[in-house]
Each structure stands twice: as structure tokens, then as C-alpha cells.
């Protein structure tokens, strides 16, 4: 849907990599968030300032919101939709990539801003740690004018990418979308997305903005930042007094599931051979939400998330394998 006239979106039927399980609940998942062009540069060791550093460089589709949608489709969500904003420069490419992944994109073409671009610097040492340089471009301009309550028709869960919270128009969209979802009884999840941007926004402001959200999916750094507590178990417990269900992603340490002010389970990580950690948290979130929609309890959904995260770190970029693989 393009509120400014015209739409790239079209619906196609295709097989999913993991078909929905029969006899369990289903329903649509709507993701609202960022669509990004990732330029992934994989280098070994420290960057050489003032001269060349050898690297393997690839341009790939990405974005936290788009990645979550693709992983949810890959893990069996039969109806996954994405609302995002892109520039005309790469809109057709992003639509093709999303559609091929089993996502029904609703891409608003921004007349003034290019598609968001992120430079992902990935150290190919054992940790495969990454550093992002972010130009938010058109995604920063996603706002209430791009929303329609009809987007929630047939939707059983709404997921909001945390990058929405870091612009004025995005925060206004969050308020509209959460209110519309609550009016229909649709649960809402949020992935905070970036500890760096959270620190700039302010913890109190973010917690105020997620009032009414049902599920929060921070990573360890984000959970500790949001609570001021150094221990992720304590942080998850404290956050679950603010949001009903908190699932803290801990990478190689698995995940914590907390509700009602206490950590209720610790989910171990799946074995992984890290190549690139870009998008691992998005993979967790997408698989977790797909599992919830299929009727799983939070602990089982977190285990599904850990499995997807392990798969993600063994690949370059933030998207799942092609459904045909």
C-alpha cells in the first residue's frame, strides 16, 4: 500500500521452506519496519586506518524489519506481510527479494529519500562480530500516513522493528499502530534493535513508547541498558514487570524467557559455526514469532528462535536461505 499513490506490492502463492503444522493455530503476521540495502564487508583483524584493508564485499537485501519477516516466512508463517518505505533507486529489487522469500511486501516509494543503506563491517575472526554504519534514508520517513487499519485484516500478531522508535514520524506510527492493534485485540511485539540508538533516544522515553506492548525481544546489551542492571537475568526480570513477556537474546548463551517479574526459563543456544552475526537477532525474532503463531509456548518458541539464530550466523547477510534450498 502506498499512501502517496502507486504500490509495488503484489501477492503471490509459493511453497514455504517449512510448511505450517496442521491442526495448530495460524494467522497473519504483520511486520512494520525497515527495509535496507546491506553492504557487507568481511575483513580479518583490525581495520588499517589511512590505507587499504582487504575484504570480501557483497551487496545484500537487509533491514531488521524485513529480515524478521523473511525468517518468519522461512520458519513456516503462511501469511507474512511487511510495511516499509524505500527509495525508487532499489524498490523493485527489494520487492523481488521479499516476494521470493515468501513475504507479501507493502512498500511505500519515497519520492525524496533513497533506500536505507547499512555498511556492515564483519571481522572474520572467531566471533564474527560486526559493526554497522547506518544511513537510514527512506526508512526514517515511514510514518502514520503510510498506515491503514486495513493492514490488520486477518492479522493475529503485529511486530514493530525498534528502528521505528528513532524518528519522530516512526514514533507517531508506533502510537497509531499499537492503538489500532489493541482495538482489535491483536498482540504487539517489539525488538529494540539498537543499543546505540536506544541510548540516544533515552531509556525512559522508550519504555513509555512501548506501553501496551505484549512482547519485548531485546538482546543482552539492550536489556541491560533499558534497566541499568549489569546482569541480564536481573534485567529480563525487571523488564517483565513493564512488558508481560520478555525474551532476551544472548547469542551463544541462548535466551532468557521472563514474565511476571521473574525469569521462568533459560533456553540453550543451538550449536553454530559463526561466519557473520549480521541478522542473527532478526532470525531469532522471526522464528520465535512464527512459532507463537503456530501455537507454541514461549519457551518452545525461544528454542525455535535459537535454532534460527544458529543458522543465521553461519551465513553471510541477514536473510535465510532460499526456500528452494
Automatic annotation (TrEMBL):
Residues 29-323 form the Carbohydrate kinase PfkB domain. The keyword Transferase applies. Residues 1-21 are annotated as: Disordered. Keywords: Kinase, Transferase. Pfam families: PfkB (PF00294). GO terms for molecular function: kinase activity. PROSITE patterns: PFKB_KINASES_2. This is Sugar kinase. It comes from Streptomyces poonensis.
